[in-house]
Specification:
single chain; 212 residues; Rossmann fold; five-stranded parallel beta sheet; binds P1-(5'-adenosyl)P5-(5'-thymidyl)pentaphosphate
């Protein structure tokens, strides 16, 4: 398999439900503002077409999605997002901060749904081809994350409606990814106050060595 291309200004934020990714993303955007262009985006989504795929993925109103269907939908959305938004922005020298990226597929479709990592890696290498320089993994207990998400959303989406055992597998898969990629993935204890978590995230980004 060909190597993934790592872009020095590409940062992703990962974690389970309600871990505080959006909150951290806003703090990073503010910390990097003024330095150069900062593009904040999210997955699944980030383009009109990919957002429509996200709608399909999270809609509880159709028959249960087969695990393979879910996998192919997240990668279809990602292929569009990477080509339309992420690579063009990185090529013009912008920072790109993405709320979720391919690590989420290893965690949710791999850990959660039980799809073999090799099959996910084949899609990653075949249709994505890039990886972040830094991934901030916001680690939080499943019950605490669900409480936070519940306090915010009245109706759970299709994936939020999964049982706790699913989210325990997701969390374990994220931590396995962090252990396998220690130079890229920075684990942050997300159980602390939002400002403390954000300060840790900003410090990790400031310690990145980025060519001028
Ligand atoms: N998915 C995604 C896959 O299955 N495969 C894939 O490849 C990809 C890319 C959508 C879903 O798609 C799945 C995973 C997801 O199920 P999403 O929109 O990122 O992805 O879904 P969520 O994880 O549900 O995102 P949330 O918006 O719920 O969570 P966040 O962004 O992590 O949390 P945030 O910042 O909105 O915070 C949640 C609440 O907690 C508070 C906030 O104010 C907010 O009310 N909060 C804190 N409270 C106390 N202390 C802190 N430190 C706090 N930080 C935030």
């Amino acid at each position: 398999m060909s190597a993934l291309r790592a872009y020095p200004r590409f940062i992703t934020i990962e974690g389970g439900e309600g871990a505080g990714k959006s909150t951290v993303l806003h703090a990073l955007r503010d910390a990097l503002a003024g330095e150069s262009e900062v593009v904040c985006t999210r997955e699944p989504g980030g383009t009109p077409l990919a957002e429509r795929i996200r709608g399909l993925l999270l809609d509880p109103g159709h028959e249960p999605a087969a695990a393979d269907t879910e996998l192919l939908l997240v990668f279809a959305a990602r292929a569009q997002h990477v080509r339309e938004v992420v690579i063009p922005a990185l090529e013009r020298g912008a920072w790109v901060i993405s709320d979720r990226f391919t690590d989420s597929s290893y965690a949710y479709q791999g850990g959660g749904r039980g799809i073999a990592a090799e099959r996910i890696a084949a899609l990653e290498h075949g249709y994505v081809g890039i990886e972040p320089a830094l991934t901030l993994l916001l680690d939080l207990g499943v019950a605490q994350g669900r409480d936070r998400a519940r306090a915010r959303d009245a109706v759970p989406d299709r994936i939020e409606a999964e049982h706790d055992a699913f989210f325990e597998r997701v969390r374990a898969a994220f931590l396995e990814r962090a252990a396998a990629h220690p130079a890229r993935v920075h684990v942050i204890d997300a159980a602390r106050a939002a400002d403390v978590v954000a300060a840790d995230a900003v410090r990790a980004v400031q310690s990145l060595r980025v060519p001028a």
